UniProtKB/TrEMBL annotation:
UniProt KW Oxidoreductase keyword: no
Key words, A-Z: Membrane, Transmembrane, Transmembrane helix
Keyword Membrane: yes
Xref: InterPro entries: Rce1/LyrA-like_dom
Transmembrane segments: 16-40, 64-84, 107-127, 139-159, 180-197, 203-223, 230-247, 267-286
Domain named CAAX prenyl protease 2/Lysostaphin resistance protein A-like: residues: 142-241
Name of the protein in its database record: Lysostaphin resistance A-like protein
Taxonomic lineage: Bacteria, Pseudomonadati, Bacteroidota, Flavobacteriia, Flavobacteriales
């Protein structure tokens, strides 16, 4: 069982707090190249160092900015793997899935399912209001974006999944010895990590329902499937397709996407729609394909260890 793989007598919750600090430090180390580049750029151009995140995101060419941003996630992922292996004495497989090996087919199914839906949804919106978008396709910058995005965005999304749906979910499970507490806590923390995104400033706090709801969805498919392969695929598709397909001057990622969204951001039913309509449909599709049962027990039940699992 997935959550039980992290529950051991020596895995006290204090270790998870310490491990989280190590991961945060690793992430800060990964931000050094971006900071150094900003300082160097300001020095050579004789301009002031940007004092806010929005200004910093616009200093460099978008592909370079994306590359520098993604480096910190690579460091954070390395930090997470180090903590799992050397602080908790677990295998990386044990925080990924309960299966004997990582199921690549599950990752790909989830990826292409959500990628297809995302593209179809954009085309529907575009055909309804083409005046809200402007074609931004530039072959060379776009191809560079494809390379950078394909290589590094899955690292960013996998980092978040390994930390929230893997490491912290098992940590909270060990603390509470049930399933609902790690599901709720990781969803709340995951949502709060997006608090400083420019989307929140533009659309208001209601957008947090989307971020927390997405965290809840990713946690549910992880618990129901006894592994986070589906979450890995979904998250990678969500961010990669978004970066390649459409951007705006107020989104967290400024990229050489195919289109630019000119519409004024607003938070209405479109924020709630994925949570109350789309995610339940995806849960239904996944449940039928992978024969999920015992929903109440897997999402809210207590955890009882029947054997000690060693890794």
């Amino acid at each position: 069982m997935f959550l039980e793989q992290g529950i051991k007598p020596e895995n006290s919750f204090g270790k998870y707090i310490l491990g989280s600090v190590v991961i945060i430090i690793a992430s800060f180390v990964g931000q050094i190249p971006f900071t150094v580049a900003l300082v160097y750029k300001s020095f050579t151009d004789k301009t002031a160092i940007p004092s806010d995140n929005d200004s910093a995101m616009k200093v460099f060419e978008p592909n370079l900015t994306l590359f520098l941003l993604m480096i910190s996630f690579a460091f954070a992922l390395a930090g997470a793997f180090y903590v799992v292996r050397h602080l908790h004495n677990q295998s990386i497989l044990s925080i990924t899935t309960s299966r004997r090996t990582i199921d690549i087919k599950r990752i790909l199914f989830s990826f292409f399912l959500w990628a297809g839906f995302s593209i179809a949804s954009f085309l529907f919106v575009y055909l309804q209001s083409p005046e809200q978008f402007v074609l931004n396709f530039k072959p060379v910058p776009f191809l560079i974006l494809v390379v950078i995005g394909t290589l590094l965005i899955p690292i960013q999304t996998s980092t978040e999944e390994y930390i929230f749906r893997g490491y912290l979910m098992q940590g909270f499970a060990g603390l509470a010895r049930n399933r609902w507490f790690p599901l709720v806590m990781t969803s709340l923390i995951f949502g709060s990590m997006h608090w400083f995104n420019p989307e929140v400033t533009k659309m208001g706090n209601i957008i947090m329902f989307y971020y927390i709801g997405t965290g809840l969805f990713l946690g549910m498919i992880t618990l129901m499937d006894e592994g986070m392969e589906l979450a890995l695929g979904f998250h990678a598709a969500n961010n990669l397709i978004g970066a390649l397909l459409v951007t705006s001057d107020w989104s967290v990622f400024q990229t050489h996407s195919v289109f630019i969204d000119l519409s004024e951001p607003s938070a209405g039913f479109d924020v709630i729609f994925p949570i109350v309509i789309i995610y339940p449909i995806l849960l239904f599709i996944f449940s039928k394909k992978y024969n999920w049962k015992n929903w109440k027990e897997k999402l809210t039940g207590d955890i009882t260890l029947t054997e000690i699992i060693k890794y």
